[in-house]
Specification:
The complex is a heterodimer of chains A (281) and B (254).
Chain A (H helix, E strand, L loop, with lengths): L2 H34 L5 H5 L2 E2 L4 E2 L2 H32 L4 H15 L2 H15 L6 H26 L2 H9 L4 H30 L2 H4 L21 H10 L6 H32 L3
Helix pairs in contact in A: 1-11, 3-6, 3-8, 4-6, 5-6, 6-8, 7-8, 8-11, 10-11
Chain B lengths: L5 E12 L2 E12 L3 E5 L6 H8 L9 E9 L2 E2 L7 H7 E4 L10 H11 L5 H14 L3 H4 L12 H13 L5 E5 L7 H14 L4 E5 L3 H7 L2 E6 L2 E7 L2 H4 L4 H7 L5
The chains are: A mainly alpha (281), B alpha/beta (254).
Chain lengths: 281, 254
Amino acid sequence: MNRYLAQRVGFVLLFLIALIVVVPILLVVGTIVIQGAGAINWTFLTRMPRDGMKAGGILPAIVGTLLLTLGTALAAIPVGVGGAIYLAEYARDTWLTRAIRLAIINLAGIPSVVYGLFGLGLFVLFLQFGTSILAGCLTLALMTLPIVISSAEEALRAVPVEFRTVSASLGGTRWQGIRYIVLPQALPGIVTGVILGLLRAAGETAPILFTVAAFFLPRLPQSLFDQTMALPYHLYVISTQVPGMPLEVQYGTALVLLALVLSMNIVATVIRSYFRRRRQW
Amino acid sequence: MVRRNPKIRIQEVSYAYEGKPALRAVTIDVPANAVTVFFGPAGGGKTTLLRLINRLNDLVEGTHMSGHILLDGQDIYAPGVDVPSLRRRVGMVFALPLPLPGTVRENVEYGPKLGGVRDRTRLEEIVVRSLTQAALWDEVKDRLDSPASALSGGQQQRLCIARSLALEPEVLLLDEPTSGLDPISTGKVEETLFELKQHYTIVIVPHSVQQAARVADYAAFFLMGELIEHRPGKEIFTAPRKQRTEDYVTGRFG
């Protein structure tokens, strides 16, 4: 085999390997869409569940997941972005900042069920928030923090150091340089990181299992201290805990969750590419 | 050494970065309303000294400085000095044109806005005056609101000069401001300097001996962190007193 032929064979093999990555995604999404599309209708999206969740809609689970995602964002963004600004712009390389970084890396590696148990211990029991949206949001926010901090820090560091020098040379304080130059330039990267973090939070079951999720609660939550249904947990319940559940309802619920998460993903991609085209360095 | 109204007095300044000395006991007076040139081969400490005059080296970690730098008789490294205010009095133009993200107008307005200027008419005046002083007004007056990055390299560098002038500084420091520019743009920047020295104290690190000779009212030759020779006018280029200066200006090394 001559070397050109070897190269061709190599390329074809590598292409096939790359293709393997695409196959599971297509199979998962395809199966869910085909099996679940029939369940999607106005009633399914806007009504309370009936007949032991076998009929009616999944509105409380949709609203619950949206509320949990929003609450997670409100808790995780200020802390995460604030921490990233400190680490990227102010922190000197001391044992303390090294310890903080180590903590962030380790937080990212903790299994989500451990976050759930931690949330149960701290927010539900010790702080007496009860099984509530508040406890669930805070637990999800803790889990999201490492993603938000690392991606925001990376986005801040990607802004050329010269901009900070120029801002300082024009009589700006360090904070003015961050506020008016660095942060706006890093914003698309930060937004992308935040959305990716929230996306994971929206789809997680374990952290909400002990802290907020209700098995069956056919009404919308009234306060932060209410329980709520949520899509991932609802999906788990109707797939494993309720005998005789119509397959279509299960796939329909999965489809709604998938659509929610994928649309957030698309928003993140659009934001990123929009700002990348406008970037001037 | 001539002492015509020294604006800046640099006294016994030594400076080290991560233990490596960059400046050794440099003492030099910089007169007002004139162009002073710091020249010499790379690694001589010219840029370092320049950045010490408006405390930009504060941003760098792992450095050690001794000695004093006086601006109008006041030690700028004394405790309690308001550093952002100092930098508004002592402007800086960098080797590469570094427009901030945003429009031409936003670049010029950036400094004044940070200082609290909000009035539209006042800002408009500043934009016109600064761009005119930097010899850029005629070229950009119709595109003040287009991105600064769309300007040519030479225009961007004059925009950076205008941006510093917007603060009405007393001193303007220029670190090889024409190193990235073509000869025509370089000529324009040098002409701008001649205009500016009526009102400002200018210190420039030139990008060549030829440029040093063209713009200098006072010239100081730096070698390996030491000030070798400091003379008024162009004498240093035609009749240097020190052998090492002569070797450099005649092109024997560098």
